[in-house]
């Protein structure tokens, strides 16, 4: 008696509209990860987090402090722009703080 053969579905390939990986392997919005996570942590905990290797650098937290100093509407615009960049593969992050002095 032959053992039963189970049908294993084939793993589908990349959808036709999915962009090919960048030759450099870089993700354009990756610089926004630390500042955005730092801002989310700060708003949840009520204070900016301390630098933590692999999570928040001192530079990330400098951006967070600048964002936190702005009015709520500016903070939300900054958050939304960077959330949008992180949810796609083509849009660069916006680390400048809306309304801040240059």
Structural notes for this entry:
The protein has 102 residues and is an all-alpha fold. It is built from three helices and no strands. It has helices at 33-45, 58-68, 72-86. The termini are far apart.
Could you outline the blueprint of secondary structure elements for this entry?
Blueprint: H1 33-45, H2 58-68, H3 72-86
> How far apart are the first and last residues' alpha carbons, in Å?
78 Å
Q: Any low-confidence stretches, pLDDT <50, length ≥5? A: none
Work out the strand percent: under 5%
The total of helices stands at 3
Q: Secondary-structure element sequence?
A: HHH
Question: What is Rg?
Answer: 20 Å
Number of strands: 0
Portion in helices: 25-40%
Report mean pLDDT, rounded to a whole number: 80
User: Quick one: biggest sheet?
Assistant: none
Instruction: Give the CA-based shape.
Output: globular
Specify the structural class: mainly alpha
Protein traits:
mainly alpha; 102 residues; 38% helix
Provide a short characterization of the protein structure:
By secondary structure, this protein is mainly alpha-helical.
């Amino acid at each position: 008696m032959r053992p039963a053969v189970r049908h294993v579905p084939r793993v589908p390939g990349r959808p036709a509209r999915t962009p090919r990986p960048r030759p450099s392997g870089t993700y354009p919005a990756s610089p926004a990860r630390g500042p955005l996570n730092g801002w989310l942590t700060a708003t949840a905990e009520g204070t900016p987090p301390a630098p933590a290797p692999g999570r928040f650098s001192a530079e990330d937290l400098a951006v967070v402090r600048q964002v936190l100093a702005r009015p709520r509407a500016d903070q939300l615009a900054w958050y939304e722009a960077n959330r949008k960049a992180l949810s796609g593969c083509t849009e660069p992050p916006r680390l400048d703080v809306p309304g801040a002095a240059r």
